[in-house]
Amino acid sequence: MRPALRLHALAACIALACPAFAAEKATTIPAKAVEAATALRDKAMADNTGYEFVSGLTTEVGPRLAGSAADKRGVEWTVAKFKAMGFDKVYTEKVSYPLWERRSEHAAIVAPYPQNLFVTALGYSAGTPAGGLTADVVAFDTLDALKAADPATVKGKIVYVSTHMQQQKDGHDYGMGSATRTRGPVLAAKMGAVGYLLRSAGTDPHSRTPHTGVTGFTKPEDAIPAGALSLPDADQLERVLKEGKPVTIKLDLDVGFKGTYEGENVIAEVTGRKKPNEVVAIGGHLDSWDLGTGAIDDGAGVAIAAAAAKLIKDMPLRPDRTIRVIAFANEEMGLWGGRAYAEAHAKDVAKFQLGTESDFGAGRIWRMTASVKPGARGAIEQIAKVIEPIGVAYDPNKPGGGGSDLSQMHAKGMAALSLTQDGTDYFDYHHNANDTLDKIDPKALAQNVAVYATFAYMAAQADGNFGSAPDAFKGDGAHD
Amino acid sequence: MRPALRLHALAACIALACPAFAAEKATTIPAKAVEAATALRDKAMADNTGYEFVSGLTTEVGPRLAGSAADKRGVEWTVAKFKAMGFDKVYTEKVSYPLWERRSEHAAIVAPYPQNLFVTALGYSAGTPAGGLTADVVAFDTLDALKAADPATVKGKIVYVSTHMQQQKDGHDYGMGSATRTRGPVLAAKMGAVGYLLRSAGTDPHSRTPHTGVTGFTKPEDAIPAGALSLPDADQLERVLKEGKPVTIKLDLDVGFKGTYEGENVIAEVTGRKKPNEVVAIGGHLDSWDLGTGAIDDGAGVAIAAAAAKLIKDMPLRPDRTIRVIAFANEEMGLWGGRAYAEAHAKDVAKFQLGTESDFGAGRIWRMTASVKPGARGAIEQIAKVIEPIGVAYDPNKPGGGGSDLSQMHAKGMAALSLTQDGTDYFDYHHNANDTLDKIDPKALAQNVAVYATFAYMAAQADGNFGSAPDAFKGDGAHD
């Protein structure tokens, strides 16, 4: 939360007698619930449900590109799995989005040194004409350099932008990498480029696996062919460019928009015993890119949420409030599942006790932050105390954003956590063919499940709420 | 050398007054040459010629599959480069071999869980019929288990063999891995299998890069479609197989034999000042598999030999004997260049002072072994003393085999070294798409160049020979 905005919100609340900031009773978690959560945490740390879930999903379904036949099988698999896990309710909600297909993709240096390049098309890229597109390359070190360029130098060319990301625990270089991937193609198209390539937004310099991901194109008529080169291929192209001769590339991307698809968010619930209409929302996204099997992005996220809810369901008594697991549709091409969910449920936002989504791999959670009302900070500190022994530090000075799809509910006013995972190697595998089950450490995954189970149970048992209300957290800085 | 064979050879020599074992003067290296070699070593350690060579070859030519247009460009590039480096002679020698082409390759699990698998066809594999080949899988843990199987269980099936290799400094698991790749398909074909897949002969469990390599098929009519799965894909298939349901795979390999090709060994020489017809032979192979750019296999080998010879050429005086650099054609599909070379030059084997080839990547050399006459052991020890400070230990108890192609000249009787590189990560990248320039550490490459330059110069300056003679080293155990 930004100081200036906090004061502004506080002033508005005082004027309107806003309940979140009134002198009401602070939210607390009863001692008995803290005790039960501690036992739940320890059980979860030794439990394999999450790993079995993600192993099953990625093995029996595999890659799940939004709108593909495999995506549909993924929905069916998850519905069946949620039912087999014994949840109280299992249902789906429709999510409509543009269908985009990848059929084949090739790139090659034509001159001066003919050779193939490992490329992948980006989401919402246009296809090339049949037989491919051949053009000279104009290269830029950064997106800013492209922005500053004279459009005449770009017109008719394939633009290449080389952004270098480094490994980091919080993966912050992805801000720059994803901007180069999403905004770069749109900018290049506006400047008259006929194609766009970037050095993949990834961090493994030794792997020939290009990283896909969505562009900012929203209409087929605005899109140009856009792809990413693997990092060794980007190095290769850069070595060739460095010689100063004109470099010609042929792109052959058989991809593109194909009408509209109706997918589904898949939802499972442990129904609350006392306040069934009040909901702790947790989840991940069920779709994945098609190059890997979507293990760390985001089979792990769905598995963490599902396993946490299952462990809560297996307790002697149902929790006071409902635990809702949401496996979102088509996060990858623009939070389609999350936005549809928020649209449909915004009117009930005050019923969302607390929520967050897991979508940053399967590394251990090391930090919790929260966007809650001041009167619920004590309850957050109670949660922090239970998860501190399993490696999670609470930072009270940062907002909690709710994760990728649930950020949309947070934007509507849902109180939210961020449970930050160790993403040091996340961008080695993110959106590329190497996103497979072997990247998940079952023990690290169990720690995630333990954190989710603990917080979700404690929030469900709290005396009081965390401040969810329409627009309650506007300007908290979570997604600036 | 095996003890029994050693006695046998000795007995034969005594009877025939074999010069190698007679009481002739021991071979030694003059003090002045040792001094010059020490300075040469130090210069080479700080020299970048080798790295520049392999960077140029892999960037300006890229992959060089034997018989491909790129292979031809590789020959032209190397001839031009050798000339630009100022060697005294640059020439080529013809090498004829069956042409095998890779056009496209796909594999997928059809049932029970449809999904693509990352596959690469193996050298000399047959293509599948148009539209692909679909069959059930029968799996074996080892090649021995396949050997022991009832052919009735294999007939009409796709055989899958899962051999697990581990990283090792000397890469000895490759014996098992390459047997599964070369002998497995031949055995499976004889048993009536319609296709063959193996878990790649590689050591990076996290990379979706299947490892290609040659099979033992020698005639198109004996070949069946054969491929390798990446290790994560092999894991995936094994998880599916473990469930016990029938597993159906579709293989679509558009590959195959296509007549005969005439390639070239590319040769450069620093002509000896005193004994130009006596030759120290060093080299690597110029062809590579087509998935990577052939940096560690074996652009590095050619670069090491070429740079070593260049450094010797740049000395104030030409060496006493000739230094010959051989960039062999088509090593990958069965030592075609090496065998052609040995056939052509066997009659002159006694003129080959000493030789060895670099073909195990670009890691530092840590061990030297030698197959030389007893009277040349002192000279080998002199060489060992000069290269010991840069990390090479001399093991007098093992034979020296001469490397891959030059093993064929050693088999004819050429005295040979083995200069063993650190291959700990070699089989992470060997024969797969990740064999690219970034895998080469310029400093480690320079150490290789230093070792080659040092030994080649000292051998060229030796008083006496190392025992090369027709069949002089038969049964030394180098290639048992």
From TrEMBL, chains A, B:
Coarse class of the protein's main subcellular location: endoplasmic reticulum
Subcellular location: Endoplasmic reticulum; Golgi apparatus; Lysosome; Secreted
One cellular component (GO) term of this entry: extracellular region
InterPro entries in alphabetical order: CPQ, Peptidase_M28
Gene3D superfamilies: 3.50.30.30, Zn peptidases
A GO MF label: metal ion binding
One Gene Ontology biological process: proteolysis
Transport listed as a keyword: no
Signal peptide positions (record): 1-22
Peptidase M28 domain ranges (all copies): 265-454
Keyword terms, alphabetized: Aminopeptidase, Carboxypeptidase, Endoplasmic reticulum, Glycoprotein, Golgi apparatus, Hydrolase, Lysosome, Metal-binding, Metalloprotease, Protease, Secreted, Signal, Zinc, Zymogen
One Pfam family of this chain: Peptidase_M28
Assembly: Homodimer. The monomeric form is inactive while the homodimer is active.
Record's protein name: Carboxypeptidase Q
Organism, scientific name: Luteibacter yeojuensis
